[in-house]
Design goal:
The chain is an alpha/beta fold and about 250 residues long. About 45% of the residues lie in helices and about 20% in strands. Helix 6 links the parallel strand 4 (about 135-140) and strand 5.
């Protein structure tokens, strides 16, 4: 596989017109080791962040949920376990969905199997009618979209009025010491160890810290969410601000 990200391209990966293709190739390359690296390099916090997102979504037994950029399906499954009537996981990387679906099939005898389905698709052109969902979630995916404003407009379109939007995304901690430690870890340590574990040649773990450092901070992302047809925005910092859960309601 050709290298998806060259170091010279990472000054601002979000500005590249070919970002979507590079992101897809990158995730295809790391799919098999994605879950392991998530656990290790979040210091086992990634599952706690997803559980928080499920609580923030206030899932009800009648809710129909769309989990965008679902990856290997961790949040999709958590939302189903949270009691949703049906959860669709959507991602544009087939290799990630294959792993998610293997997890679903492994749960064939459990109550989650029939409440989860997976679909390949693009966050910027969701293949659903207007007002289809009660909840829409996206975990660590909004910064990987080619144009987040287009995606957020799509999220509003497919949510019912009063539907809940949940966005989990990394942020830069505001406490100086925490920020410095986080930068050192994500820029110096994680790219080396994650690349060794995955055997990755796509540049995925160079892209990750660069994509966080050059993406919108919580205030800018929050303002974009509100401009996209949402209200009642609540932003909660998790793990000393390393991650933020954004919750808003569709107007």
């Amino acid at each position: 596989m050709p290298t998806a990200w060259q170091s010279s391209e990472l000054n601002d990966p979000h500005a590249r017109s070919d970002k979507a293709g590079k992101v897809r190739g990158m995730f295809a390359a790391i799919a098999s080791s994605y879950d392991l690296n998530n656990r290790l390099h979040s210091l086992w916090q990634d599952q706690a962040w997803r559980r928080f997102a499920v609580r923030a979504a206030a899932v009800k037994p009648t809710d129909v949920v769309l989990d965008v950029a679902c990856g290997t399906g961790d949040l999709t499954r958590a939302l189903a376990k949270g009691g949703a009537a049906r959860v669709t996981g959507l991602d544009f990387t087939r290799e990630m969905l294959d792993i998610a679906d293997r997890k679903r099939v492994a749960a064939a005898r459990g109550p989650l199997h029939d409440r989860i389905n997976y679909l390949e698709g693009d966050a910027q052109a969701l293949p659903f009618p207007d007002a289809s969902f009660d909840i829409l979630s996206i975990a660590f995916g909004i910064r990987n979209v080619q144009d987040p404003a287009i995606a957020l407009a799509e999220f509003r379109r497919v949510l019912k009025p009063g539907g809940r939007l949940i966005v989990l995304e990394f942020d830069r901690p505001t406490l100086p010491l925490v920020g410095a430690l986080s930068d050192f870890y994500t820029r110096k340590i994680m790219p080396i160890t994650a690349t060794l574990i995955s055997g990755d040649r796509s540049g995925a773990y160079k892209y990750l810290p660069a994509s966080v450092a050059t993406f919108m901070d919580r205030s800018v992302l929050g303002a974009l969410i509100l401009r996209s047809g949402f209200q009642d925005l609540k932003q909660t910092g998790l793990s000393l601000g390393v991650c933020v859960c954004h919750r808003a309601v569709a107007v």
